[in-house]
Amino acid sequence: MQQCRVVSVIKSPPPNPGTAPFLLPCFQAPNTVVDELCPANKANRAKYNVPPGQLTENGMNQALKLGNFLRETYIGSMDFLPPTLGSGSMPTFSSWLKSDSAARCLQTAQAMAMGLFPYGTGPPGFPNQPMPVLTEPDRFASLLAAPHGPCLAQQKADNAAYDSTRGVELIQQSRNITDVVSKACGVPTEAYTNVDNGKEGLVLGVKDVGDMLDFDEQQGLPRLASVSKQAHEDMTQLAFTLLQERYYSNRRQANHLLGGRLSSHAAG
Questions:
Q1: Do residue 172 and residue 93 come from a single domain?
Q2: E strand or H helix at 104, and its extent?
Q3: Rounded to an integer, what distance in angstroms lies between the CA atom of residue 79 and that of residue 81?
Q4: Is 256 in a helix, a strand, or coil?
Q5: What is the pLDDT of residues 26-79, one digit of tens each?
Q6: What is the pLDDT of residues 152-190, one digit of tens each?
Q7: Residue where a domain stops, chosen among 135, 161, 192
Q8: What's the CA gap between 67 and 202, in Å, rounded?
Q9: Over the chain, what is the mean pLDDT?
Q10: Are both 130 and 9 inside the same structural domain?
């Protein structure tokens, strides 16, 4: 499952100022690369109501409900935030969200903001309450996307090292899982290295096919013929293990993914 990093930034009089990071599961439409990885799933791809890679209505509703929950908690129960962004009772209060630059993540932040400050909480004459959602190009994103920015070169080297050693080994050990799904898709696992002009590779291929199965299930679409629920779960677990090992095998890698939060001396 894809995830989005969203940070809620609150500036208000002491003792309340602070930030709250969220790591949100992201219900999205499959990426276009699955057309090459799994042509047999073309019928399901056509049933999504949003463009490839973007947030689905299920993801939008999930983020909206999270915003509702945050409103009930921080405004209704704790009285931590004002009921609107323009409340005169807290004249120095301001708040915004910061998100990954991916479209699905910006959409997630916007939907969450709609739940936190819903229709009717805006200023007089404008019932909607727009909440600022900030982002920055990946190459500068040291907080939310360090592997795509300041630490890009190191991340590429780490990925290549893992993919050519432990990644290949684990996938070979799991052929009983990948063969079932790849046969149903119509593309053998070893052919993943040729997908997207050679940019995909085995590890990302397994991940994208696993995501596709998850997204289809979330969307209420039928599984591929001959792919059982157990085979789906096994593929998803394999993809999860591959990504956890690929990105979090040591403290330095974790620093890259978490924007240097583990150490004030993290380097790219």
A1: no
A2: helix 103-116
A3: 6
A4: helix
A5: 789 999 999 999 999 999 999 999 999 999 999 999 999 999 998 999 889 988
A6: 788 888 889 999 999 999 999 999 999 999 999 999 999
A7: 135
A8: 37
A9: 83
A10: yes
Strand partners, 195: none
- What 3 state SS string does the chain have? CEEEEEEEEEECCCCCCEEEEEEEEECECCCCCHHHHCHHHHHHHCCCCCCCCCECHHHHHHHHHHHHHHHHHHHHHCCCCCCCCCCCCCCCCEEEEEECCCHHHHHHHHHHHHHHCCCCCCCCCCCCCCCCEECCCHHHCCCCCHHHCCCHHHHHHHHHHHHHHHHHHHHHHCHHHHHHHHHHHCCCHHHHHHCCCCCCHHHHHHHHHHHHHHHHHHCCCCCCCCCCHHHHHHHHHHHHHHHHHHHHCCHHHHHHHCCCCCCCCCCC
Q: Which one-letter amino acid corresponds to residue 216?
A: D
Residues 131 and 155 in one domain: no
Helix (H) or strand (E) holding 35: helix 34-37
Token pair 């990504």 in the structure block, residue: 243
> Is the same domain home to 118 and 96?
yes
171 and 87 in one domain? Answer: no
Residues 189 and 95 in one domain: no
What is Dmax (Cα atoms) for the chain?
A: 63
Rounded Cα distance between 253 and 230, Å, is 31
What letter represents residue 26's amino acid?
C
What is the number of other CB atoms lying within 10 angstroms of the CB of residue 49?
A: 10
